[in-house]
Amino acid sequence: MTLHVYNSLTRRKEVFMPLVPGEVRMYVCGVTAYDRCHLGHARAYIVWDTVRRYLQTRYRVHHVQNITDIDDKIIRRARERGIPWQAIAQEFTAAYEADMQRLNVRPADTSPKATAYVGAMVSLIADLIAGGYAYASGGDVYYAVQRFPNYGQLSGRQLQDMQAGASGRVDETEPHKRYPLDFALWKGTKPGEPSWDSPWGPGRPGWHIECSAMARALLGDRLDIHAGGADLKFPHHENEIAQSEAVTGQPLARYWLHNGFVNIDGEKMSKSLGNFFTIQDLLQRFSAMAVRWFVLQAHYRQPIDFTEEGMQAATKAWQTINEGLTFAREFGPRLGWAEKTAPEAGAIARFTAAMDDDFNTAAALAIVFDLAKTLRAAGNALRRQEPIASDQDLAATSAALYKLSEVLGFTVEGIIEATASITSTASGEMEIIEKIGEREISELLAERQQAKKAKNYPKADEIRNYLRKRGVELADKAGGVTTWWRI
Ligand SMILES: [Zn+2]
To answer: Ligand 1 center to residue 236 CA distance, Å?
Structure first.
C-alpha cells in the first residue's frame, strides 16, 4: 500500500514520502474574504478536505489554510458599501465558514489571517531585498523575477515568452516597476487605504507574500504538500516559490497539487455569463451531501461540468448512500448486531487501492455505492419480510460503509428533511415528484386502508397499481399493517 500523487512541479505521479515519517505538513491557499463563495470554491475545498481526511488515515496531518483579510477587492467592496474594510472581511469569513460547515468540510488546524502576519511578511521582504531579489521603489517593493533562475518552473513558462506577452501593459498602475513581470511585495499606501508601518514607508503587503510568510511561520521552510486550484499555478504559486526559495534556499513544497476547473453546462463559470452559482444558491436547491458526491465523482485534477442532470443523478446516488447509512439504525437491533463489527476487508482494500492512486475518488465512490446498494436491497427485503443474506455479512458491509463514508466526508442526512430542503425552492423535477410522492403515499395508504375495511378490494388494488406505476411497492402484513418502499 503506497500512496502515489501527481506532482504538478514534475508533471508525473510520484511515490508519496513525507519529509518527517508519519507526519504531513499541508498548506492550502484560502479565500479572499470579499464575497460569497461559489461552486469553484466548493469543489476546491471539498477536494482538499477529502485528501486531508484520507491522509489522516495514515499520517498526523498539519493543515494550514490562510484567509486573506486585506486586499484591493476588500477595500473596493467596503467603499461601495460605505463600511469599514474589517467589517467586509469579517462578514465574508463567517459566510465562508458557514458554507464549509454545511458541506462537511472540516476547518484547517490553523486558519491564519493575513493581517496578523504583516510583521512576518515585512521581515521576509527585508530578507529578499538583502539577498538582491527585491527592490524598493517609490514606496513600493517589487520582486525582481529575472534574479530568480527557476522562475516559471511550476507553470512551465519561459521568462522571454512571458515578457513578449506582457510588453506594453506595464506602467499604468505600478509606475515604479523596473521590469514588466516583477510583482509587488509591498504596496505603498494610498489616501484612504489601511496601512502598516515598514522600513519602506507605510503600506500593505502584496497578496503573494502572504502565503510564503504564513506557511513559513506555521509549518517551517519546507512543506510536504502545497495545494490549490489550477488557476493559482501562475502567477500565485510561481511567485510563492520565487519568494520562499530565494530566502530559504530549499524547495518550498515536495508535492504541488492542483484541482481542476468547474464549468457550467460546458461553459466557464462567470458572473457576466449569468451562470454563476454561490454555494448558498446551490444548497437551497440541492442537499450538501449530493454536492459533495457530485464533486468527488470526478478525479480532482479533471475539469468538472456542472449540469442540472448531473446534480439530479448525484442526488439520486447520494440517496442510496444515505439509505445504506441508515440501515444499521433501522435494522441493526432487530438483527441483533453487536456494537462493534469489523468492516468488510475486501471493500476497505479496494477503496485504499483506489485512493492510493492519486486520490481516485471516482473509483472510491463506486465501491461505497456498491456497499450501500447491498444494504438498501436488504432493507427492502426485510420490509417485505423476505429472507436476506447472513446477518453477519451485512453488519460488516454496514461497518465498511460507515468507515469509508467518513473518509469521504459523507454524513447521514435526514431523508425527509433533505427532500424538503431540496424541493423548497422548486428546482429539479425529479425531487418534486419524490416530495409529492411522500405526501401522496401516506394519503393513498390511508384511503386504501379504508377501502380494505369496507371490503372494497378492487379499489385497494387500484391504489396499489397506481403506486406501483410511480415506483412504490406495498406489502400487507399481519394485523392490517401495510409497509412500502421505493423500487
Ligand atoms: Zn497561496
So the answer is: 6
